[in-house]
Amino acid sequence: MAGLELLSDQGYRLDGRKATELRKVQARMGVFAQADGSAYLEQGNTKALAVVYGPHEIRGARSRALHDRAIINCQYSMATFSTAERKRRPHGDRKSTEMSLHLKQTFEAAVLTQLYPRSQIDIYVKILQSDGGNYSVCVNAATLAVIDAGIPMRDYVCACTVGFVDETSLADLCYAEESGGVSSLALALLPRGGQIALVQMDARLHQDHLDTLIEAAMTACKGVSKVLDQVVRQHLQEGSTLRE
Amino acid sequence: MATVKVSEAEKVYILHGIRDDLRVDGRSCEDYRHMEVETDVVSNTDGSARVSLGHTAVLVGIKAEIGKPRPLVPDEGYLEFFVDCSANATPEFEGRGGEELGIELSNTLYRVFNNKNSIDLKGLCISAGEHCWVLYVDVLLLQCDGNLYDAISVAIKAALFNTKIPRVHMSSDDEGGKEVELSDDPFDCVRLSVENVPCIVTLCKVGHRHVVDATLQEKACSVASLIIAVTHRGTVTCVKKVGGGSLDPESIFEMTEAGKRVGKALHAPLMKLLQQEESLGKKREKVGFLG
């Protein structure tokens, strides 16, 4: 690619990070009082709000109910002002519908849905500011919201986007890198068991590199999981000290 | 909106309380709940503000784009409003569920803000009939606990205060063609004057009295409400009755008077707060949703 050098000779990226370095992750649980669970997460300049309602009775058509587990209903949307160019619709376009589906798949793999037969869990995620890695930020925010709602999961679901440039894998891509023609891969991981909940890559990559890239993605996800764990613990501590 | 169910006994309790000027949460009839305002929360916008009023939370982002002036008013720019009732606020808004409320809200916002008495629209014009600034005001409802209009209007006023429009000038080439040139310096910006921007005060008629900033429970007990847009001088710029019931002219008059009083009192602290926040400059610690 001409113009931008994604990885300098000294091994630094556009925003000054090292190849395996994540962006700063900051999060807060229990942002809203009305929802059953909510969380706000910032990963660099990407900011997302996740809200969870449920488990509750199925809304709308009863025929959708599953007799042995809960259905997970996701909606991904982006604030119209979240991108550099204004978006005309917050949701309902092809990309957000696909993203909703991915989120649903990810959380079906993680939430213990069999504990709530014939019910529904709603997960709504909103991107307030977008700077790359929207999918992973949404997953990370939604994980915290699900935990805040007290819904049992197998493990944290942590997601990260990684890219491959000059034989090096870059962790946690920002928008400039994502749009700069890097072959990127999004991966959602259940870190403790090393189970992959979702993996998606829509660029060309030599087969030999795939292993290293997935390996890098898993390491990055584990890094994210540490931060999320800290946030949850701190939130619980604050809650318990308030009660004393 | 998150639905609340209020029993008959609760209704009587709320009604009697309001009759004696003491509401369920201890406020008197003309008090607002705790309000939080923060500007410059989304860096992708030209101006943004977050407002929370009780449990109601809204986020407003303003983006300025260059467009073509409307043919009827070639020397004025204009504002576009969009209200996104996101599913985050309540599951009922999922899919297209929030559209109806969104359109109702944005139409009211057009009426209140998009006129030259509220904002200097002429100042948004770059060259008459050809180019003007269009301010896209996007409102995001994050949580609804009554009194959306007031929270949205305060957020819009704060976001307009925060809006920085890049300075442009017209240059003409040899053949007489005109071109818009953006200033090279990203800090070379124009600010909007928000002096005359009104705030909306919603008054809910509950029993024989009216209350300001009604919660969902109180709204469930009211017959109808009146929204009044008031400027800092106390000039009423827009009055609209919302809700199913009917109001008699006498009470509309009383409510307008109360609205003027409350609205006037709302502007001064808001402007003081915004200026105070602005004066901190880069030293200000940004809280956003993390605080």
From TrEMBL, chain A:
Q: What is its main location?
A: cytoplasm
Pfam families of this UniProt entry?
Answer: RNase_PH, RNase_PH_C
Which positions fall inside the Exoribonuclease phosphorolytic domain? 21-152, 155-219
Q: Which InterPro entries match?
A: ExoRNase_PH_dom1 (IPR001247), ExoRNase_PH_dom2 (IPR015847), ExoRNase_PH_dom2_sf (IPR036345), PNPase/RNase_PH_dom_sf (IPR027408), Ribosomal_Su5_D2-typ_SF (IPR020568), RNase_PH (IPR050080)
Biological process (GO) annotations held by this record are: nuclear mRNA surveillance; poly(A)-dependent snoRNA 3'-end processing; rRNA catabolic process; rRNA processing; U4 snRNA 3'-end processing
Q: Which GO terms describe its cellular component?
A: cytoplasmic exosome (RNase complex); nuclear exosome (RNase complex); nucleolus; nucleoplasm
* Cell compartment(s), UniProt: Cytoplasm; Nucleus, Nucleolus; Nucleus, Nucleoplasm
What PANTHER family does this protein's entry cite? EXOSOME COMPLEX COMPONENT, EXOSOME COMPLEX COMPONENT RRP41
Under what name is this protein listed? Exosome complex component RRP41
Q: Which organism is it from?
A: Oryzias latipes
Recorded name of the encoding gene = EXOSC4
TrEMBL record, chain B:
- Name by which UniProt lists this protein: Exosome component 7
Report the superkingdom from the record. Eukaryota
**Family recorded in the similarity comment:** Belongs to the RNase PH family.
The record's listing under InterPro entries reads: ExoRNase_PH_dom1 (IPR001247), ExoRNase_PH_dom2 (IPR015847), ExoRNase_PH_dom2_sf (IPR036345), Exosome_comp_Rrp42_subfam (IPR050590), PNPase/RNase_PH_dom_sf (IPR027408), Ribosomal_Su5_D2-typ_SF (IPR020568)
Q: Locate the Exoribonuclease phosphorolytic domain: which residues?
A: 32-166, 196-261
GO terms of molecular function: mRNA 3'-UTR AU-rich region binding
The places in or outside the cell where this protein is found are: Cytoplasm; Nucleus, Nucleolus
- According to its UniProt entry, this protein's organism is Oryzias latipes (Japanese rice fish)
Q: What is the lineage of its organism?
A: Eukaryota, Metazoa, Chordata, Craniata, Vertebrata
Pfam families assigned: RNase_PH, RNase_PH_C
Q: Which UniProt keywords apply?
A: Acetylation, Cytoplasm, Exosome, Nucleus, RNA-binding, rRNA processing
The coiled-coil regions, if any, are none
Claim: Isomerase is one of the keywords in the record: no
Oligomer and partners: Component of the RNA exosome core complex (Exo-9), composed of EXOSC1, EXOSC2, EXOSC3, EXOSC4, EXOSC5, EXOSC6, EXOSC7, EXOSC8 and EXOSC9; within the complex interacts with EXOSC2 and EXOSC4. The catalytically inactive RNA exosome core complex (Exo-9) associates with the catalytic subunit EXOSC10/RRP6. Exo-9 may associate with DIS3 to form the nucleolar exosome complex, or DIS3L to form the cytoplasmic exosome complex. Exo-9 is formed by a hexameric base ring consisting of the heterodimers EXOSC4-EXOSC9, EXOSC5-EXOSC8 and EXOSC6-EXOSC7, and a cap ring consisting of EXOSC1, EXOSC2 and EXOSC3.
Q: Listed GO cellular component terms?
A: cytoplasmic exosome (RNase complex); nuclear exosome (RNase complex); nucleolus
Q: Alphabetically, which GO biological process terms does the record hold?
A: exonucleolytic trimming to generate mature 3'-end of 5.8S rRNA from tricistronic rRNA transcript (SSU-rRNA, 5.8S rRNA, LSU-rRNA); nuclear mRNA surveillance; nuclear polyadenylation-dependent rRNA catabolic process; rRNA catabolic process; TRAMP-dependent tRNA surveillance pathway; U1 snRNA 3'-end processing; U4 snRNA 3'-end processing; U5 snRNA 3'-end processing
Checking CDD domains in the record gives:
RNase_PH_RRP42 (cd11367)
